[in-house]
Write a structure and sequence with these properties.
Number of helices: 10
Order of helices and strands: HHHHHEHEEHHHH
Radius of gyration: 24 Å
Oligomer: single chain
Number of strands: 3
Strand content: under 5%
C-alpha cells in the first residue's frame, strides 16, 4: 500500500518525461529498498521469496497502469514513447541488484501499447508521404546556400548514410527531391525509435512497418513512372529509387542487424520492388 500511496501522491507537472522519471524513481527505488529489507529478514525462506516475486509483479501492474496513462496517449510522439519506455527499462534493470528480474513482466505489460504506438507512428509517416506525393515535381533539391546544404548532408550522415555527400553538387544542390530527403529522415528516425522499443514479440511488427513505409515511397515512384507527364524525368526518378532501395534500405538492414543481432530476411523482398521500378522506366538506371 505504501508504494501505491507514494505513486498516487505524484503530481503531473512539467513534461511527460519529467513525470515519468519521477514515477520510475519512486516506484523502482522503493521496490529496491523493500527487496533489500525482505532479503535481510527472509533470505533463507524460499516460500517467502516466491511470494515476494508474486507481490512485486502485482505492484508492477499498478506502476504500468499509471505509466501507460501518461505515455501512450494520442498526443505522445513515438520518440517520446521510446524515451519513456527506455527510461522505465533502465530503472527496472536496477532490480537485478537484489536478484529480482522483472524485465519480461514489464515487456509483457507494455507490449500491446508499444505495438499500437509503432502502428500510429507508421501511419503518420505513410499519411505524410501520400499527402506530399500529390505535390511532387521530381526536381533536384536546391538548398540555396552551401551552408544549408552542408547541414542537410551532416544530418543524413548522422543518421548513418555515410556516402550521402556524394549526392551533393554545385555547392547547394542534392540529387534527390526535397521530399525524398524528408522521407529518409522520417524512416531512419522511425527505425531508431522502434529499435529502442524492440522486443522479440514485436520483431515482425517492426519489420512490416518499415517495409510499408518504403513501399509507400516506392508506390509514389511507380505512379510517376507510369504517368506520361514524367517520361522525361525517368532518369531522375530512378536516381531517387536507387537511393531509397539501395543506400537507405542497406542502412536499415545494417542498423537492424546491429541492434537485434540477426538479419531480417524480409527486407530482401524490397529488391524485387526496386527491380519492378526499373522495368517501368524507359531509360536505364544510373548508379549513385
Amino acid at each position: 500500500m505504501a508504494i501505491k500511496r507514494s505513486l498516487r501522491q505524484l503530481k503531473m507537472e512539467g513534461s511527460t518525461t519529467l513525470y515519468v522519471n519521477k514515477l520510475c524513481y519512486v516506484f523502482f527505488t522503493t521496490m529496491l529498498e523493500v527487496g533489500r529489507e525482505f532479503q535481510k529478514d527472509f533470505s533463507s525462506n524460499n516460500g517467502c521469496c516466491s511470494a515476494f516475486v508474486v507481490w512485486a509483479k502485482l505492484e508492477l501492474e499498478t506502476f504500468v497502469g499509471m505509466f501507460a496513462r501518461q505515455v501512450f496517449s494520442s498526443k505522445t510522439s513515438l520518440s517520446m514513447v521510446a524515451e519513456c519506455v527506455e527510461m522505465a527499462q533502465q530503472y527496472c534493470d536496477k532490480l537485478c541488484e537484489i536478484g529480482l528480474d522483472l524485465t519480461f513482466a514489464l515487456h509483457s505489460l507494455l507490449v500491446k501499447d508499444v505495438r499500437r504506438a509503432m502502428h500510429d507512428g507508421r501511419d503518420q509517416i505513410v499519411e505524410a508521404i501520400r499527402h506530399r506525393s500529390m505535390e511532387e515535381k521530381w526536381r533536384a533539391y536546391n538548398l540555396l546556400t552551401p551552408q544549408a546544404c552542408r547541414e542537410v548532408v551532416k544530418e543524413m550522415e548522422d543518421l548513418g548514410l555515410s556516402n550521402f555527400k556524394s549526392l551533393m553538387y554545385d555547392d547547394c544542390w542534392i540529387k534527390l527531391t526535397p521530399n525524398m530527403v524528408t522521407y529518409t529522415k522520417q524512416l531512419l528516425q522511425f527505425l531508431d525509435q522502434c529499435l529502442k522499443l524492440y522486443q522479440p514479440e514485436l520483431h515482425m511488427v517492426l519489420v512490416e512497418n518499415v517495409m510499408m513505409i518504403v513501399r509507400c515511397v516506392g508506390k509514389q515512384m511507380e505512379t510517376a513512372l507510369t504517368a506520361k507527364e514524367y517520361t522525361k524525368s525517368h532518369p531522375f526518378i530512378l536516381k531517387n529509387a536507387s537511393f531509397v532501395f539501395e543506400m537507405v534500405v542497406q542502412r536499415v538492414e545494417r542498423r537492424f542487424q546491429e541492434h537485434v543481432g540477426k538479419p531480417a530476411k524480409q527486407f530482401q523482398e524490397l529488391r524485387t520492388d526496386y527491380a519492378k521500378l526499373r522495368s517501368l522506366a524507359r531509360t536505364p538506371t544510373t548508379e549513385l
